């Protein structure tokens, strides 16, 4: 017989052994296997002790008036107005911490990003340039930028001038 631990079905095999659902041939093969396998023998002993403890456990008896009290509670719940029944499931205990956390997040958001007024101009970012950064400026890039500005000035036509009247008037 292949070891149930190696096969991965030790739980099924041990429960079947403890409940007596193994065929006599399977039970005999498993007992022969347990004689040589200490791990399976230890698991089987643990499973037997669990089942014997369950057999010794006494179930507490239900009181004689349990059914009557349960029925009375069901009837009382059904007689309550539907609004009260719906409100009963809602509890403020979990809602209060959630609301407090949302309020805290909202306050942090407001403090971190103040809204600028419409009258105030947007502040230009301050750029601090060191002498080393100034020396790293590419001279050719500056020349190209100046040439581009000159070209854009040439494209500015007199028709776009506000002092000149439109053609054909």
Q: What is the gist of this entry?
A:
The chain contains 9 helices and no strands. The chain is mainly alpha-helical and 169 residues long. Among the domains are: 4-56, no CATH class; 66-111, no CATH class.
What does this structure look like?
This protein is an all-alpha fold and 169 residues long. Among the domains are: 4-56, no CATH class; 66-111, no CATH class. Helices cover 65% and strands 0% of the residues. The protein contains 9 helices and no strands. The protein has helices spanning 4-7, 10-19, 24-36, 38-56, 66-79, 82-88, 92-112, 131-135, 139-155. The longest helix has 21 residues, at 92-112. The radius of gyration is 43 Å and the shape is elongated. The mean pLDDT is 77.
Query: Strand percentage, roughly?
Result: under 5%
Give the uncertain stretches in residue-range form: none
Number of strands: 0
Task: Please tell me how large the radius of gyration is.
Answer: 43 Å
Please bin the fraction of helical residues.
Answer: 55-70%
Strand count, sense and barrel status of the largest sheet are:
none
Silhouette: elongated
Task: Set out the fold topology.
Blueprint: H1 4-7, H2 10-19, H3 24-36, H4 38-56, H5 66-79, H6 82-88, H7 92-112, H8 131-135, H9 139-155
Core attributes:
169 residues; mainly alpha; elongated
């Amino acid at each position: 017989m292949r070891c149930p631990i190696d096969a991965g079905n030790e739980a099924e095999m041990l429960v079947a052994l403890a409940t007596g659902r193994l065929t006599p041939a399977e039970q005999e093969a498993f007992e022969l296997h347990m004689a040589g396998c200490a791990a399976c023998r230890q698991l089987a002993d643990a499973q037997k002790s669990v089942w014997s403890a369950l057999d010794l456990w006494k179930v507490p008896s239900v009181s004689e008036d349990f059914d009557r009290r349960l029925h009375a509670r069901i009837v009382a719940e059904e007689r309550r107005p539907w609004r009260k029944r719906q409100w009963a499931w809602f509890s403020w205990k979990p809602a209060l911490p959630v609301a407090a956390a949302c309020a805290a997040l909202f306050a942090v958001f407001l403090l971190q990003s103040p809204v600028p007024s419409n009258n105030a101009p947007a502040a230009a970012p301050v750029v601090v340039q060191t002498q080393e950064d100034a020396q790293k400026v590419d001279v050719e890039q500056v020349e190209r930028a100046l040439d581009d500005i000159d070209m854009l000035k040439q494209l500015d036509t007199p028709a776009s001038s506000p002092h000149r009247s439109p053609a054909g008037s």
